């Protein structure tokens, strides 16, 4: 894809990398001056400042570090909606696999956290290296969409299990009442994680352009419903509009990077938009236009 994967917030890692860290170091990007104290490296003294003020100051720089990419993927039954090979879970798998590949080839750590009934299932903790990337890809390939959702519980569990700051991506259709999601996202943000949410929807779920009586089946085990779209269409679209506004609002309130995605848009377009929006050089360029 040719685009880097950047974090919005400072990361903590254990090797040198490309991402900004809250720990001061000696990379090339200047951070601030501070007054010299005995024991500081005299090579970092700013002699021009000394000449102007007759006081010793040290230059501090942003230390670069590696990122931990942790992907929480909803594997509930509704993620199996769609034609064979083109389900929501297939779309999520492609997104997660592409981002995992990008992160690994930047020297970053990758983890996969499948979320099904009862919380997380056979997660792959974030680690670095090509062998571990293969393990993560194998786990993605083995995912199945089945059962009820417990995404909220899985997010809380992941917040406790991911030990250091990470870029946490959540990929889900969010087919549940959204209010409990707010506390789960706040839990991740309390742990200092950079959180992005991809909300996967089928175009028909939004537009609801059925033209004849249709039986709607609950893929998570609930009863089916026979309905005439002509009679319920207006109220359905109003309800969906309110639901989408609520999800967007709670993401804004929790500082979550929210992306609503309809699966008729190719996943590479979705990821390109996501990556460009996080690239600090792209943001600077956009800010200078006009």
List key phrases describing it.
elongated; alpha/beta; 290 residues; single chain; two-stranded antiparallel sheet; 7-stranded mixed beta sheet; disordered C terminus; Rossmann fold; 2 domains
How would you describe the overall organization of this protein?
It is built from nine helices and eleven strands. α2 runs antiparallel to α3 (130-141), α4 (151-161) runs parallel beside α5 (179-190) and α5 runs parallel beside α7 (229-254). The chain has helices at 47-53, 88-105, 130-141, 151-161, 179-190, 203-207, 229-254, 267-278, 280-288, and strands spanning 19-35, 57-65, 68-74, 109-116, 119-120, 124-127, 167-172, 194-201, 214-216, 225-227, 257-262. Residues 11-19, 23-28 and 284-290 have low confidence and may be disordered. It has two domains: 19-64, no CATH class; 68-277, von Willebrand factor, type A domain (Rossmann fold, 3-Layer(aba) Sandwich), CATH 3.40.50. The strands form three sheets. Strands 3, 4, 5, 6, 7, 8 and 11 form a seven-stranded mixed β-sheet that branches. Strands 1-2 form a two-stranded antiparallel ribbon. The chain has a two-stranded antiparallel sheet with strand order 9-10. The protein is α/β, with parallel strands linked by helices. β3 (68-74), α2 and β4 (109-116) form a beta-alpha-beta unit.
Q: Give the helix level as a range of percent.
A: 25-40%
Fold-level CATH name of the largest domain: Rossmann fold
What is the mean predicted local confidence, pLDDT?
84
**Which structural category do the helix and sheet elements fall into?**
alpha/beta
Q: What fraction of residues sit in β-strands?
A: 25-35%
Structural domain tally: 2
The CATH top-level class label of the largest domain: Alpha Beta
CATH evolutionary superfamily of the largest domain = von Willebrand factor, type A domain
Stretches with pLDDT under 50, minimum 5 residues? 11-19, 23-28, 284-290
Under the CATH scheme, the architecture of the largest domain is 3-Layer(aba) Sandwich
**Which series of helices and strands comes N to C?**
EHEEHEEEHHEHEHEEHEHH
Rounded to an integer in angstroms, the radius of gyration calculated over CA atoms is 23 Å
């Amino acid at each position: 894809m040719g685009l880097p994967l950047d974090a919005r917030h400072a990361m903590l890692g254990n090797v040198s990398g490309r991402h900004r860290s809250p720990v001061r170091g000696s990379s090339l990007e200047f951070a601030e001056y501070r007054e010299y104290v005995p024991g500081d490296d005299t090579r970092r003294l700013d002699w021009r400042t000394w000449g102007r003020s007759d006081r010793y100051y040290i230059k501090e720089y942003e230390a670069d570090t590696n990122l931990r990419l942790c992907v929480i993927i909803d594997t509930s039954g509704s993620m199996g909606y769609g034609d064979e090979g083109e389900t929501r879970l297939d779309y999520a798998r492609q997104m997660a696999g592409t981002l995992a590949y990008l992160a690994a080839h930047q020297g970053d750590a990758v983890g996969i956290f499948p979320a099904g009934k009862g919380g997380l299932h056979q997660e792959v903790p974030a680690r670095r290296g090509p062998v571990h990337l293969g393990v993560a890809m194998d786990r993605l390939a083995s995912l199945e969409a089945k059962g009820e959702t417990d995404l909220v519980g899985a997010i809380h569990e992941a917040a406790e299990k991911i030990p250091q700051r990470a870029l946490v991506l959540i990929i889900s259709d969010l087919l549940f009442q959204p209010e409990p999601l707010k506390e789960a996202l706040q839990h991740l943000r309390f742990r200092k994680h950079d959180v992005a949410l991809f909300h996967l929807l089928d175009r028909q779920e939004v537009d609801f352009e059925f033209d004849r009586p249709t039986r709607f089946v609950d893929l998570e085990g609930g009863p089916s419903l026979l309905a005439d779209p002509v009679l319920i269409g207006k109220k359905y679209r109003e309800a969906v509009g309110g639901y989408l506004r609520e999800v967007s609002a709670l993401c804004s309130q929790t500082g979550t990077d929210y992306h609503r995605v309809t699966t008729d848009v190719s996943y590479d377009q979705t990821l390109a938009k996501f990556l460009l929006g996080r690239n600090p050089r792209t943001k600077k360029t956009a800010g200078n236009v006009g």
